């Protein structure tokens, strides 16, 4: 006896909203990228300096994912050499209060557990 699988079933129907959030924001770099873009646009080289442990390939990949999820806007200027700036979209700006709370929690946690 085999179980029939409906390949047209939307897998997102049963997802918890927190799981959806984690799917979008998961990874070591995405939240940090959003944090650094929260107040002003940044060029790729500025983000590289702010995230020196992220490889160029990883940073590009995560920026593209954030762009595809509607959180980051990539603006390309028609100049030589090419100039590209990243900023939060209006939708991405909705994460600012959450990013601030993460910062506050992280600061409290660092002070509470200084040896970690």
Could you name the key traits of this structure?
116 residues; alpha+beta; 6 helices; 3 strands; 12% strand; globular
Description of the molecule:
The protein has 116 residues and is of the alpha+beta class. The chain has helices at 17-25, 30-37, 44-50, 56-68, 90-93, 96-112, and strands spanning 42-43, 72-77, 83-88.
C-alpha Rg, in Å?
18 Å
Envelope shape = globular
Element order: H for helix, E for strand: HHEHHEEHH
In helices, the fraction of residues equals 40-55%
Can you give the mean pLDDT? 91
Mind describing the biggest β-sheet? Answer: 3 strands, antiparallel
Care to count the β-strands? Answer: 3
Cross-sheet strand order for the largest sheet: 1-3-2
Low-confidence stretches: none
- Strand portion, in percent? 5-15%
Number of helices: 6
- Kindly report how far apart the N and C termini lie: 52 Å
Q: Structural class, from secondary structure content?
A: alpha+beta
Question: Helix and strand layout, with pairings?
Answer:
Layout: H1 17-25, H2 30-37, E1 42-43, H3 44-50, H4 56-68, E2 72-77, E3 83-88, H5 90-93, H6 96-112
Antiparallel strand pairs: 1-3, 2-3
Outline:
With 116 residues, the protein is of the alpha+beta class. It is built from six helices and three strands; from the N terminus they run ααβααββαα.
